[in-house]
Amino acid sequence: KDQLNLQEWCWTTLTFGQAGAPALSGIIRHKAAEDFCQLEEVKNQVKQKALVDDILIGASTTEKFEAYQKDVEQMLEKSGMKYHDWVVSGIKSGHVVDFDQEPIKEGTKVFGYQYDQESDQFSLNVNINLTKAVRGKKFGKSLQAGEDPMVYLKNSEFTKRKALGFTLSLWDLTGWVLPIQMLLRLQYRDLLEDHKGLKWDDEIPSQYQVRYANTFKRLLTFHGLRWDRAVVPTTSWDEGWGCRLATFFDGSEVASVAYTYIVTLKKDGSFHSRMLWGKGKLGCGSVPRNELGAA
Questions:
Q1: pTM of the prediction?
Q2: Which candidate, 21, 62, 175, places its Cα nearest to that of 111?
Q3: Alpha helices in 82-221 (DSSP H)
Q4: How far is Cα 257 from Cα 265, in angstroms, rounded to an integer?
């Protein structure tokens, strides 16, 4: 022991509860970029333009992208990581660069959304499936458009556990279905307040099943929603005028919400606006306090 001269130590195994997976992913990504990226631009993009394990690499030309691609790949190789695939906007990636992988299939997911490379658009896939997952996948029947949601809930034995599970599983990064998410959160909070003795595997009362059925019906109307990846017009906009951010927020006795839009001036004198981000949270107390919280 006297001969040991310990200068530095680190975890070699992630123990349960030591760190959240998203936070750990960011730490590893920053460390790998600092240690192994050779191009400064690639290093900055890997560190700043990522969501958990999805990394955005932007380039103005194919030649630059090929150089960026090689730098990212050698960074991943040296750090002991592998990538799933490359997704290139505007045209199918196999026609742009040789990725030395299987051709990218239609329906590639980026940031949790379906992404069409040729149209450069995202789309929303709404899947309401209350069956039990097996190794992360659900093989049971999903609620279909036009189907009676009340019948589906009865057949699925809609319990308190399933109500919370679906509320937490509804993923929407930018906030397109935020109004529905807020409804689900409010309904679950009301359920807990009105039925404090309800156990995890007890079916929720019929009046709440009606509320959930109506919410599911509204949620299905978002299925197939499409929007451009670009947040500014691709042509005919005044770059000299630049972009302006417009944020709207509001609060009530039970919740607060904020939406941010990006506004550009088109060359014909009209304005173009596009939703950029939306966030909301449940609140309690006074309306002024929740409105300030939203701001």
A1: 0.76
A2: 175
A3: 149-156, 160-169, 178-194, 206-220
A4: 27
